[in-house]
Design a protein that fits this description.
Largest sheet: 4 strands, mixed
Structural class: little secondary structure
Radius of gyration: 15 Å
Number of strands: 4
Strand content: 5-15%
Amino acid sequence: AWYNGMASGSAAGYPRPVGGKLPNAWGFFDMLGNNWEKCRDRYPMDDDRGSEKAFDPLGTVSGGGTPLHGASYYHGANKVRAACRPMDAVNAAYEDSGVRISMTVR
């Protein structure tokens, strides 16, 4: 995964092209690191996730904010894990976050 601290100088501080690392067990590239994934689900207004922290919840259609997954090139290795799901404002936009698009390449 790409994260802050892996490179220095001109190579640090920007996203990398997809496929620069090996794919995961399902064939997906860059699921952790590189860019935060802004997810469709939402955290409840009071952020009382309870046992939902243990698995991937669908969330509510409205609520306090959306979770981000996977960390980015800007953050350290401690954020680059599937369990790291910080809450972000629904309409927030940052240069190190976006959506992940998948397709079958033949």
